[in-house]
Design brief:
two-stranded parallel sheet, 11 strands, Rossmann fold, SDR family oxidoreductase, NAD(P)-bd_dom_sf
Length: about 210
């Protein structure tokens, strides 16, 4: 049976994905720096592994078929952590995945990484890092799907999205719960290799949009 590695499993989206897989007893390895952050999550096929993404975390890829990279440096850190986590750790994850012949690598990126120069302000270093990480994955030969959500909210998920970028900025958000649901669908869906999806709140069922 395929086993999935969740990188960034203690983040909000990572916890949602990990919980969903654990509850259905699907084999999953949750990679975190601190195991205590996942104490409320339980499952007979759940394995929690501690590792620092700034170091060597190659052992986490042993026996993995799928990888979801949803780690991030966080909005309160500086450009140094953005570089080390959102770019360098992502690059290392791609290298480890390639060495282990991973069948599917799903990268959580961001809307706007296709053209970081179009968006100024404090978020630009983050977008540049994500842009470079995405490019590295696309050129690696590892089977991939890129997910680029709009601004994230903690609203309750509706299970309905759109992949067409709205015309107005105030319509570009998406709930973390709906991003997690989209990741879970991509994990089980064949034929999504080499595809890039921007995600926004919408009116379409996830399974009818991500094709």
């Amino acid at each position: 049976m395929n086993k999935t590695l969740i990188i960034g499993a203690s983040g909000q989206i990572g916890q949602m994905v990990t919980t969903a897989l654990a509850e259905t007893d699907q084999p999953v390895r949750a990679l975190v720096r601190d195991k205590t952050k996942l104490e409320p999550i339980a499952g007979s096929q759940l394995e929690i592994m501690e590792a620092d993404l700034e170091g060597d975390f190659s052992a986490a890829f042993d026996g993995m078929s799928n990888v979801i990279f949803c780690a991030g440096s966080g909005g309160t850190t500086g450009a140094d952590k953005t570089l080390l986590i959102d770019l360098w750790a992502a690059k290392k994850a791609v290298d480890y995945a390639k060495k282990q012949s991973v069948k599917k690598f799903v990268m959580v990126s961001s809307m706007g990484v296709d053209d970081p120069d179009a968006i100024g302000g404090d978020i630009k270093p983050y977008l540049v890092a994500k842009h470079m990480a995405d490019q590295y994955l696309m050129e690696s030969g590892v089977p991939y799907t890129l997910v680029r959500p709009g601004p994230l909210t903690n609203d309750e998920g509706q299970g309905k999205i759109t992949i067409k970028r709205p015309a107005h900025v105030d319509e570009m958000s998406i709930s973390r719960e709906d991003v997690a649901k989209s990741l879970l669908f991509i994990l089980t869906k064949e034929g999504l290799d080499s595809k890039i999806f921007e995600l926004f709140n919408g009116t379409y069922e996830v399974e009818n949009v991500l094709v």
